[in-house]
Every structure is written in structure tokens, then in C-alpha cells.
Amino acid sequence: DVQAALDALRSVSSGRRLGLGRVAGAVEAFLRGGAAEGGPSLMLATLHNHDETTFYHSVNVCLLSLALGRAVGLGDDDLRHLGMGALLIDIGRVVLDDPALRMSGRLSTEDWALVRLHPQEGALAILAATGPGEEIAAQIALEHHVRFDGSGYPDLGGRRPHLLSRLVSVADAYDAITSHRPHRPARTPHEARTILVRGA
User: Fold this and answer.
1) Looking at residue 28, what is its pLDDT?
2) Residue 55, CA distances (Å) to 67, 106, 118 in order
């Protein structure tokens, strides 16, 4: 399951077209494996590898999003869309492939402006590879850094992000908080929950 997801994401970084069939297959495998119901497959969300941080983060966010989606009562179709979007949220980082996106220290104004482009670039890459009815994955990628009150990025002009985007945003933040980063240690799940509730 994880290998299929990583292969699909790597295809973009090597200049090949994004293969959404492989992404959909990985999401289906996660669902069949019980990722959306909790249990052992959620342990995969603790995997981290220094050389493939973005890839593993994407898999973690997918697994966490599926579990959250199941917890709030989403049906299978919505879970599939949720999983596709979650797995592809940072594909824009791969498309941009700029060293600034991998910097561990403080970003310059120019570097930060580039980082803020990854949702749009990701959405465009997904739209180029999607068929009818799959556009929600692009919307999730576009909106995953937009908060419920409209703050964050990109600016949606006062429109609130889609429910699936909001679920992925929570999973994305949780994984970021509980992951070791060069500029700070990982926080505990309890600390992450407190931070998320405080910022809700």
C-alpha cells in the first residue's frame, strides 16, 4: 500500500505524468486494509524517513484523513475523494522542486512566497491528470492550508474551504506537529490535540 503510494508520487518528481490510477489504487488498498477504521494500519502514520519526508508525510496525512473521515461518518465515495486529495496535498512541492521547499531554517520573503505557491501548483497538476468527478482532489490540494475562518493561504476570497479540505487540514497539522522537524522536536499526540483544539 505505502509502496504504491510512494511510486505514484515519485513519478511526478522524475518528470513523468501524475498517474492517478496508481494513487486511487493505493487509497483503495488503505481502505481495504482498515486504515479508515483505525487499527494496525494506522501505525503506518508513525513512519518517517529522512530522505523521503514529504512522501511519508503525504501517506501519513492520507491515513489520518481516512480515519478522521470515517469517524465523522463519510461514505465510501467521499472517503475515496478524501484519500486521493490527502495523498496528493504536497504534490505541488514536487512540481516546484525548489531547494527552498526543503530548507530547515528560517525562510526569506522570496522563499516563503515560493512555499505558498505549492497548493496552486499541486491543484493544477492534479487537474491535468483527473477525469470528470475527481476534481475534488485538486480542491483539497488547493485548500489544505486555508483555515475555516479563511485565513491561511491561498486567499479564497471569503469562501470557506470544502469539508474534505478541512478534514485534511486537521490531519496535515496533526502529522506536522507530531513529527520531528529540524527546527523543533516532535510533540506528543496529547500536545498536538491540545494545539489543534486551541486553534479550532
Assistant:
1) 77
2) 19, 22, 15
